[in-house]
Amino acid sequence: MTLARGEILLRVSGLTAGYARPVIGPLSFEVRAGEVLGLWGRNGTGKSTILKAIGHAARVFAGRIEAAPGLTLAYLEQQPTRFPRMPVTGHELLRSARAARTDAPLALAAILHRRLDRLSGGQYQLLWVWSALATAADLVLLDEPTNNLDPDAEARLVDLIVRPGDGRAVLLVSHERRFLESACSRIVAVSADRESGCSS
Ligand SMILES: Nc1ncnc2c1ncn2[C@@H]1O[C@H](COP(=O)(O)OP(=O)(O)OP(=O)(O)O)[C@@H](O)[C@H]1O
């Protein structure tokens, strides 16, 4: 898909989402090409549920999620499963994720030849996030990508996310306001109070 900067890629209107019962909403926001949008809220407010609803893994009770025609998504769930003890390397992970970008930052490039089950939690997390960012997806959904990261690694994560791209967008979920302020061009606050929805 050819992306024009500022074009709306995803529009969420009056969304109420959940599982057996609604847990979040109503809320509305849009994601535009080229932006990094953050969804901020306290633990348990329903941030992950919003991403799951976008990824068709949670139920939509009301409202709409509209994607631009042909939009491709990459979705990284919270707390990625560690690979089992197998001789799978970072290079192989990127190949299986169909990573299109070859400009991995040096710190990551240096560990790509190593087995995934021998990386530290932080190294693994950065590589895992890069495996989504390096795809050709138009919109990358990242759920709590700071898991396992110390402040230095968190700064490297911000560098990965804000790298100049080709118009694709990132939608980030986190309870860490400071991290979102470093990484995002815009932040939407999500409230657990289902009457108050959200605000930019
Ligand atoms: N699969 C599920 N089935 C039923 N309820 C769920 C399910 N997953 C999450 N919930 C509930 O939905 C509510 C919102 O959870 P969600 O994970 O979306 O919040 P969150 O804001 O992402 O939280 P955190 O910051 O702690 O990750 C919680 O009350 C949670 O218990």
TrEMBL record:
Gene Ontology MF term list: ATP binding; ATP hydrolysis activity
Pfam families: ABC_tran
Annotated ABC transporter domain residues: 4-199
InterPro entries for the chain: AAA+_ATPase, ABC_transporter-like_ATP-bd, Metal_Ion_Import_ABC, P-loop_NTPase
Gene3D superfamilies xrefs: P-loop containing nucleotide triphosphate hydrolases (3.40.50.300)
Keywords associated with the record: ATP-binding, Nucleotide-binding, Transport
Domain of life: Bacteria
SUPFAM superfamilies named in the record: P-loop containing nucleoside triphosphate hydrolases
Name of the molecule in the record: ATPase component of Mn/Zn ABC-type transporter
Organism: Thiocystis violascens (strain ATCC 17096 / DSM 198 / 6111) (Chromatium violascens)
